[in-house]
Amino acid sequence: MHVTAEIWLITIGVLVAVLAVDLLVIGRRPHEPSMREAGIAIGVFSGLAVLFGLGIWWLAGPRYAAEFFAGWLTEYSLSVDNLFIFVLIMANLRVPRHLQQFALMVGIVLALIFRGIFIALGAAAIERFSWVFFVFGAFLIYTAVKLYLDYRSDESDDDSENAVMRWVRRRFPSTDDFRGTKLVVTEGGRRLVTPMLLVVVALGTTDLLFALDSIPAIYGLTQEPYLVFTANVFALMGLRQLYFLIGGLLQRLVYLSVGLSVILAFIGVKLVLHAAHEYGWDAGLGLDAEVPIWVSLAVIIGTLAVTTIASLVKSRRDERSA
Prior knowledge:
Elements: H1 5-28, H2 35-60, H3 62-92, H4 97-128, H5 132-152, H6 163-171, E1 184-187, E2 190-193, H7 195-219, H8 225-236, H9 239-246, H10 249-252, H11 256-278, H12 281-284, H13 293-321
Antiparallel strand pairs: 1-2
C-alpha cells in the first residue's frame, strides 16, 4: 500500500484539528456530557471510521480495507477494556464528574503520542528484522494467558497508583483539592501540583502500558503503518464520550477479558505463523502458514459478538437471581 507524504500530512493535520477543537471546547467548559451528546459523538466518530474504511476499499482494495476494520475493531475492544482501569483511577482519586472529561481528553492525547512512537518503532523493527514477529507473537500469547488468569482470579486490585505516581507524590507538594483543570497553582509563593496532575500521570502511565499490548496486536493484522496509525486514532476518538455513555454497562461485560484473551492469543499465533512463513519454515513442511485477513476479521467479529451476548445474558441472570 503506497501512502504519499501528502496523505500522511493531511491525515495528521485533520487529526490535530479535530483534537484541538475538542480540547479547546473542553478547556473552556468542562462538564459531564449528557447521554445525547455522548451518543451523537460516538455515532459520528464510528461513522467516520466506517467511511474511512470504505474509502480505503475504494482506493486500495478490499484487502487493506479488511485490515483496517480488523485493526480498528481490535483496538476499540482493547480501549473499552481499558475503560475499566480509567473508572478505577477516577474513583480512587475522587475526580469530580464535571472534570473527568478533561482528564480523559488529556489521557487520550497522551495515548496518541505514545502509540505514535510505538508505531514508528514497530515499523522500523519489522522493516529490518523478521524475527521481531516471534517476539510480538510470544508477547501477545503471554498477555492473553495473563489476561485470562486475571479474569479467573477473584482478586480485585483497587490500587490505582503506580511507581511514577508515588514518586510525584513524594517529590512535589500538592493541594488538597482540585482547582478546576489546572495542573499547577501558586499559593503563598509556593508552586503546588493539583490532584488533576496526579490523574494525568496515572492515565498517561497506564496508556503507556496499554500501548505495549495494542501495537503488537494490530501489527499482527496489518504491517501498513498508515493503517496501524489510523486504526488507533479512530479507536481512541469518542472513547471519553463512551466512558460516560456506557456507565454501568462496563460491569455487565463480564466476559470481555475472556474475549480479548482469545483475540490476542489468535493474533499471537498468527504472528508466529507469519514469522515462520518469512523464514520459509512452513514451505519445508508443505504448508502455508499465512492466515488470510478475512479469517482474522471473522474471528474478531465472531468473538466480540459471542462475548457481548454471553456477558449480557449472564448479567441478566445474575440480576434475576439476586
